Amino acid sequence: MIRFALALLLLIPQGKQIPPAGVPVPSADRAELETGLKQLAAELEPLRKAKGDLHADVEIFYKAVHDALAHDEFLNAKDIPSGKELLKVGLERAKELKEGKPGWATATGSVVRGYVSKIDGSVQPYGLVVPASYKPDHKHRLDFWLHGRDENLTDLHFVQGRLKGKTAFNPPDTIVCDLYGRFCNASKFAGEVDLFEALDSIKKRYSIDENRICVRGFSMGGASTWHLGAHHAGLWACVAPGAGFAETPVYSNIYKDAVKPTPWQETLWHMYNATDYAENYFNTNLVAYSGEIDPQKAAADTMAKALKDVGIDMIHIIGPKTAHAYEKNAKEEVAKKVDEFATEGRDPNPKKVRFTTWTLRYNEMRWVTVDGLEKHWERAQVEAEQDSGKATLTTKNVSALSLTLPGPTKVVIDGVELAAAPHYRKADGKWAAGSVEGLVKRHGLQGPIDDAFMDSFVMVTPTGKPLNEKVGAWVASEQERAITMWRRFFRGDARVVKDDAVNDAQIAESNLVLWGDPSSNKVLAKIADKLPLKWTEKTVTVGAKTYDAESHAAVLIYPNPLNPKKYVVLNSGYTFQDQSPMSNARHVSMLPDWAVVDVAAKKPVAADFFGEKWEWK
Q1: In what order do the strands lie in the sheet containing 594-598?
Q2: Mean pLDDT, to the nearest integer, of 101-105?
Q3: Angle at 438 between CA 434 and CA 440, to 5 degrees
Q4: How many Cα neighbours within 13 Å face the side chain of 44?
Q5: Residues in CB range of 503: below 8 A, 6 or more apart
Q6: Which residues pair with 423 in a beta bridge?
Q7: How many helices (H) and strands (E) would you count in the chain?
């Protein structure tokens, strides 16, 4: 158990607001915008009830203008006429959809589309450039373009820009997706999920060659590309980051801070540090770009060293005498190299796979899936090779795995020969066929707290009297802040329900974020005796340690006793809220699986991870 009495630098609120506050909207313009929103809302109502998902392509216009007006996000005077224009486009689309003739669905050129996110039910936009050569019966290459840091990139700005905008690279006969990524988070957490939800939406609507998907971006988008490329290497034909950052501690100069981060925060850097997953680039093609005099070239140099340490040479194209931009000739060289790899495409069934992970959040590489770790947040590795109906694997820190192969007749894991089976696990240190069973950490149920916000979640508000008024006031304040920060930073409205209104569908489909204590929250009271803590009027007991309940509250993530396939979270939104306005390299989990918070000081006094069976360590 880790205890701290000092305030932590990385938990101090930074004060800066992003997106920034907007300009006043004149009353006449506000009235016109409100009238347009009412008209579009009325048109949307029956469209939402109809079959299909095309209403999302209309609703992105409503959301862009509604949120700007409701939350003071008309950031300059030009945004006001832009809002009016977006309402017109939304009404035109609603009319087309009502008549069964959605022209944008088959349009080429710049097109803005949307999907409904599983995470919070919000509508999220994405931009496409559809080539004039597009044919539904031909499988097309798809490139993701990940944008740079833009603290003004509200939904309104993104949608307006993508209606007319071009992307940095437009290869022939290629669909290019300009990803919103839920604003300004370097494709982390919900921003990461956004890519895969957008990809699912695109594959439903267009003919995509899954072996010719590339991911690329510049600056913050380069950082997004580094981590998406490393964590999901098996999905891409090519990964092409430009500038950006690749890890947290060095880029952010954290070790130069007056107060060092906590041990659990250092541990959690292993979630998004691309350097820690460098070996995974064995499974794809990598083309990095840097300006010669760009300070962010250091990220590519850092990755080059990490790659060299695992025996991989990195293609690194450098723009001479260039700062933070693509140099013309170097850009052409990047485009040519990426096009070559995209044309070749990825091998859908490679003979050899190399895989590194630190968490079951990232557990797949081609035909290998890691289902269990011996110890989370320590390096786990699999090297696998198939030949003549035989698959041979060597592992480190892996306790269970699955294989998806056409049909090997023999499998050898760490020297143990086994009959072919879909699943394998270690029992008493020996490999055997079989699946993971019981209460264990597994993909999507491995923590930390922030993991609950990468899937469907519902915030559950307490209706009862808290055990302690001081703690109750802290809970109410933290819930309000969590809802506000989710909307500001991840561009959606958290689903909120009272504790006496939680239904079976929500328990079955969503992670439950329970605010309060066993006295104030009815759902928490129902499961309190099945959670690994004891919370009474006088004390909060976690593990072997007891705290005064008059000044402390429990924060926790754990499999939900009402539905062990989903999480229950106590008293926490995403944990890096105070880091949101800062460098994207600081957008990392700030708490592990559990914590005890001093509600007056608003800081954790203890925190740690559960073990692999969700036990106290």
Answers
A1: 2-3, 603-608, 594-598, 552-560, 563-570, 511-514, 457-461, 495-498
A2: 97
A3: 95
A4: 20
A5: none
A6: 402
A7: 12, 29
Structure confidence by residue, pLDDT tens digits, 249-278: 888 776 565 558 899 999 999 999 999 999
Question: In this structure, which amino acid lies at residue 97?
Answer: L
CATH architecture of 106-344: 3-Layer(aba) Sandwich (3.40)
- What secondary structure does DSSP assign to 438-470, as a single string? SS--BTTBS--GGGGGGS-EEEEE--S--S-HH
Q: Cis bond leading into 592, ω under 30°?
A: no
CB atoms within 10 A of CB 338: 23
CB 418 within 8 A of CB 431: yes
Longest dimension (CA), the chain: 77
Report the predicted TM-score, pTM, of the whole model to 2 decimal places: 0.96
β pairing state of 511-514 and 457-461: parallel
Quick one: residue 377, left, alpha or beta (phi over 0 = left, psi -120 to 50 = alpha)? left
Assess contact for 10 and 579: CB atoms under 8 A. yes
Place of tokens 């004149």: 26
Structure tokens at 608: 């740690």
Q: Which helix (H) or strand (E) holds 418?
A: strand 416-419
Whether residue 14 has pLDDT greater than 50: no
Hey, where are the domains in the chain?
106-344, 364-433, 449-608
Residue 7 has what pLDDT?
Answer: 30
Backbone dihedral angles phi then psi of residue 35, each to the nearest 5 degrees = -65, -45
For the purposes of burial, counting CB atoms within 10 Å of the CB of 15, is it exposed (0-12), middle (13-18) or buried (19 or more)? exposed
Which letter does DSSP use for residue 612 in this model?
Answer: T
Q: Look at residue 251 in the predicted model and tell me its pLDDT.
A: 85
**Edge-to-edge, what's the strand order for the sheet holding 390-396?**
352-357, 380-387, 390-396, 410-413, 416-419
CB atoms within 10 A of CB 496: 14
pLDDT in tens, 353-400: 999 999 999 999 999 999 999 999 999 999 999 998 999 999 999 999
